[in-house]
Amino acid sequence: MQVWTQWLTTWGKADKSQVIASNNPDFHVNCNLRFCGQYEDEESGLYYNRFRYYSPDTAQYILPDPLNLAGGVNPYGYVHNPSKFVDPYGLSSTSEVKAASIQSPSEFARSWQGQGEYPGVDRFKDITVKKDTILMAGAPGQGNFYTTVSAIERSGFSQEGVFKGLQVMPHPQFGYRPGMTAYRVLEDTPAAFGIVRANPQHGAGGLPQIVIKNYEGILEPLYSVKLIK
Fold first, then answer.
1. Measuring CA to CA, which residue among 155, 175, 156 is closest to residue 166?
2. Least crowded by CB within 10 Å, which of 40, 78, 113, 201?
3. Residue 3 pLDDT > 70, yes or no?
4. Would you place residue 210 in the very low, low, confident or very high pLDDT band (cuts 50, 70, 90)?
């Protein structure tokens, strides 16, 4: 693990830094982040600030503002009070930086529906899938959608029973997937949960569905089972 801390002067010049080294003595951590939106170019000593470069020595930009006076009365100036204002794009100062909206698991799940072959949108709620939970997904392949072991058992390990219960349309050439793979959840994981009902054109539905957005690295494949045609 590497940890760094950075102190800046009033106008953004790197004053001093402290690095706690990793276990590898040949690896060192450098921090080139400066004010919000700025990244130091080590060769020139200037800070890349999206639309312009900022000089920490003169505390101003090296080029005039592309917005002309709309960006401020001084076309070369940075913000007048860097302890309260930022200029993340090199255009004009602002007292707030809006964070990008974070998509909830249920919002992510719904985004896959309401269009194309799946016009209906199921009801999902946000849950946390506990560590060591076993989930099932169609095989071969892996994606964001899973169900439970009991759902496969209730479907009699039947291809049609499973995929019509999950309202998944068959591949036009190869049909339904021939099997299911069991995965163990390696850590508590945010997910969306719902009972499949909204697209009856693909089957009766009624089986539980768990949708995991970032599944890479947190699901361990255990075994696969063949479904009955």
1. 155
2. 201
3. no
4. very high
Q: Are 22 and 1 in contact (CB under 8 A)?
A: yes
* Tens of pLDDT, residues 105-128: 999 999 999 989 999 999 999 999
How far apart are alpha carbons 180 and 152 in whole angstroms?
9
Same domain, 109 and 196: yes
Q: Are residues 45 and 149 in the same domain?
A: no
Sign of the torsion formed by the C-alpha atoms of 154, 129, 123 and 145:
negative
Of residues 14 and 135, which shows the higher confidence score? 135
Separation of alpha carbons 135 and 228, rounded Å: 19
Number of Cβ atoms within 10 Å of the Cβ of 37: 19
Q: Are residues 160 and 111 in the same domain?
A: yes
